[in-house]
């Protein structure tokens, strides 16, 4: 078993690990559209939107001369392409803004708030997400997430898995990398965090992508903690 006695802070991937983005967005958009009389395949749009996520961030990495672009803006650009692709008619500028801000209104997984509350009694807890600061702050208010602070890729102007995010989080907390534990439902995120010296905890979210889920059903790396939920992580860390 790993020696976790030095861990002082836990940082969390958010989309898929802390919140159920897919169900939240589909449900939100269906009810909203019903009230507006707008017809669309919202499940296909949400899945397509998430499918453009990595490529949109990679484009920022490939063109540093353009400067950093926060996730809200990347989401909006992707949404406009999808609205055209799916031929969704009748959307105003305000409608597009409302849909983009759907990512600010995501519901937590059933164990998230209780587990975070337990972990907060012993550790500093924060998101370490590709979401921008406003998005993560609004989400915390909406979902009741008890963060001690908000850390975002926006603060470092680098998206995960760039080293600047993981090492930047440790630096802002005045901690050594090994004093910080990354919690995620994605093996790739943990592999990067581990590479840069952070401790790691894996929680499987096998329904994150619904029927489209292809990876991350189980831990595939040598992580310090593998738990079924946040409560299991709190158990391992004595909270």
Automatic annotation (TrEMBL):
Keywords: Hydrolase. It holds the Pfam family Hydrolase. The keyword Hydrolase applies. InterPro entries: 2-HAD, HAD-like_sf, HAD-SF_hydro_IA, HAD_sf, S-2-haloacid_dehalogenase. GO terms for molecular function: hydrolase activity, acting on acid halide bonds, in C-halide compounds. The keyword Repeat does not apply. It comes from the Bacteria. This is 2-haloacid dehalogenase. It comes from Bradyrhizobium huanghuaihaiense.
């Amino acid at each position: 078993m790993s020696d976790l006695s030095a861990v002082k802070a836990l940082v969390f991937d958010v989309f898929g690990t802390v919140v159920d983005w897919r169900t939240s967005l589909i449900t939100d958009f269906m009810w909203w559209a019903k009230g507006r009389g707008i017809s669309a395949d919202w499940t296909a749009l949400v899945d397509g939107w998430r499918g453009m996520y990595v490529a949109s961030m990679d484009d920022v990495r490939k063109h540093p001369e353009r400067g950093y672009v926060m996730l809200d803006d990347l989401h909006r650009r992707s949404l406009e392409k999808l609205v055209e692709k799916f031929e969704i008619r009748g959307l105003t500028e305000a409608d597009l803004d409302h849909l983009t801000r759907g990512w600010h209104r995501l519901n937590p997984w059933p164990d998230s708030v209780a587990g975070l509350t337990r972990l907060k009694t012993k550790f500093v807890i924060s998101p370490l997400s590709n979401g921008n600061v406003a998005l993560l702050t609004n989400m915390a208010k909406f979902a009741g997430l008890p963060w001690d602070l908000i850390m975002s890729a926006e603060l470092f102007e680098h998206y995960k898995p760039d080293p600047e995010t993981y090492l930047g989080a440790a630096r802002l907390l005045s901690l050594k990398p090994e004093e910080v534990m990354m919690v995620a439902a994605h093996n790739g995120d943990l592999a990067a965090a581990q590479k840069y010296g952070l401790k790691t905890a894996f929680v499987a979210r096998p329904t994150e992508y619904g029927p489209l889920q292809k990876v991350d059903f189980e831990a595939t790396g040598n992580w310090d903690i593998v738990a079924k939920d946040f409560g299991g992580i709190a158990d391992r860390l004595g909270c």
